[in-house]
Amino acid sequence: MSTERAGERDSSARRPISAATLRRLERGSGGLAGASVSAMEQRLPWFRRMPADQRASVLLVTQTGVANFVAWLQDPTEAIRLTAEAFRAAPRDLSRWVSLRQTLELVRVAIDVFEQQLPELADEQHERTMLTESILRYTREIAFAAATSYAAAAEARGAWDARLEALVVDGIVRGDAEESLLSRAAALGWEPSSEATVLVGNAPSDDPPTIVYQVRSRAARLGCPVLLGVQGTRLVVVFGSSGEERSDDEAVTRLAEAFDEGPVVVGPTVSNLAEAHRSAADAMSALRAVAAWPTAPRPVPASDLLPERALAGDPEAERQLVERIVLPLVDAGGSLMETVDTYLEVGGVLENCARQLYVHPNTVRYRLRRVAELTGRTPSNARDAHVLRVGLAVGRLAKARGLW
Asked: 239 has which bridge partners?
C-alpha cells in the first residue's frame, strides 16, 4: 500500500503545472517583486538607507528574477542562462553598492516572500508542493549566479587595477609628477602624503600574478602600501611607510626577497609620491651601473653606487659627489683636501702621507677623522677610499668646467 502511495506521489510530482497557474504567476510577478522589496526594507536597515535609484535597481533585478522563474518552470534546463540574465539586467556598478554578503541577504528575504505567496497561486496541492521545491532549486541557481557575477566583477576590477597600477609605476619611472598620476594612485589606495621608496631589480618569473602575490604578501606582513610594475624582465616596486615602529632597512630587506637573483637597488626615500620619480631615477641609474661593483651588497642603496654612476656618465651622481665629498672639505679648509688626496696617493700609508705633507702623523690622523666626520667616508676603508678618490676627481673636473 505504501508503495502505491509513493507511486502516486511520484506521478503527481511529474505532472506539469497547469497553464492557469502559470498565467497567475505571470500576472502576479510584479506584486511578488514589490512584496520582496518591501520585505527587504523592513528587515534590512542597510537597504533602507540606500538611495532610491539603487533600490530601484534591486527591484529591477528582483522583477527579472521572478519573470525568469516563471519561464524556468516551463523549461528547467534554462536555469543557468535565465538566472545570469537577472544580473546582467542590473547596472554595472551594482556590485559596488551591494556586497556579495548583502546580495545573499536579499536573496534570503526574497525566498521567504516567495515561499509564503507563491503556493497560494496554485490550483492543486501537488502544484503547491512543486512550487515550493522549485523555489528552493531556483534560488540555489540565483545564489550561484550572484557568486559568479561578483567573481566576474572582481576579476574585471582586478584587471583594471593592475593596468592602472602599471600606468602609475610607469609614470613614476618616466619622471611624471602630474596630478593625474597622484589621483590614480589615490584610487588604488595610496595615501598621497605617504613617503615613497623605489626598488628595482630582476623579476622573479614570467608569470605576473605570481610576482604580484609574492610582493604583496610581503608588503602586507610589513603593513606598508605598495605599487609594482613588471617591465619586461625588470621589476619596479614603490613602497610607502608602514606607520609602525619598523625600520626602513627591514622593509627593504624583506621586499628584496621577492626579486630574482641579481642586484636589487634601492632609491632614496622621498617625502611623498609626487617626488617618487627622483627615487626611481637614482635607482635606475644605479641598476645600470651596479655591474661595475661585483661585490655590491643586496639590496644596495643607490647612494652607495655614486662612483659607478658617475663613471657611467650620470650627471646627478656627479652633482651628489661634489656636494657630499668635495664641497664639505673645501668649506672646512685646514688642508683637508690636500691631506686626503695625498693619503690616497701614497696607498693609505699614514707615515708616508705625514712625510709628504711635512706634518706629524697625529696631525694626519686628526685630519682624516675630520674627513670621515664631514663626508661619512673613512679613508682607511677600501670602499670609502674609492668613493673619495672618484669624488675628488669629479670635483676637479667640475671645477675646471666652472660648475663650482
From this structure: 197, 226
* CB-based contact 12:126 (threshold 8 Å): yes
* Domains identified in the chain and CATH numbers: 2-156 (1.10.490), 179-306 (3.30.70.2730), 314-400 (1.10.10.2840)
Q: 325 near 380, Cβ under 8 Å?
A: no
User: Rounded to whole angstroms, how far apart are CA atoms 112 and 115?
Assistant: 5
pLDDT tier at 7 (50, 70, 90 boundaries)? very low
What does each C-alpha distance from 100 to 87, 155, 268 come to in angstroms? 12, 14, 42
Torsional sign, CA 378, 382, 387, 391: positive
Higher pLDDT, 118 or 340: 340
Average pLDDT over residues 90-97: 57
pLDDT at 74 exceeding the cut of 90: no
- What are the phi and psi torsion angles at 2 (to 5°)? -60, -35
What's this model's pTM, rounded to 2 decimal places? 0.61
Q: Considering only CA atoms, which of 315, 302, 325 is closest in space to residue 387?
A: 325
φ, ψ of residue 227 in degrees (nearest 5): -125, 140
Q: How high does pLDDT run on average in the chain?
A: 81
Helix (H) or strand (E) holding 207: none
Each residue of 151-178: b (16+ CB within 10 Å) or e? Answer: eebeeeeeeeebeebbbbbebbbeebee
Task: Give the span between the Cα atoms of 84 and 78, in whole angstroms.
Answer: 10
**Strand, coil or helix: what is 351?**
helix
Q: Which is higher by pLDDT, 52 or 8?
A: 52
Nearest to 184 by CA among 158, 163, 211: 163
pLDDT of 198: 94
d(CA 203, CA 331): 44
Q: Give CA–CA dist 375/368, Å, rounded.
A: 10
Amino acid identity of 96? Answer: R
For every residue of 314-348, DSSP letters joined together read: -HHHHHHHIIIIIHHHHHH-TTHHHHHHHHHHTTS
Query: Is the confidence at residue 12, as pLDDT, over 90?
Result: no
269: three-class secondary structure by DSSP: coil
Q: Report the alpha-carbon distance of residue 38 to residue 41 in Å, rounded.
A: 5
For CA atoms 349, 355, 359, 361, give the dihedral sign.
Answer: positive
Which residues on neighbouring strands pair with residue 266, listed in sequence order?
Answer: 199, 301
Task: List 227's β-bridge partners, or say none.
Answer: 238
Cell numbers linked to 373: 666626520
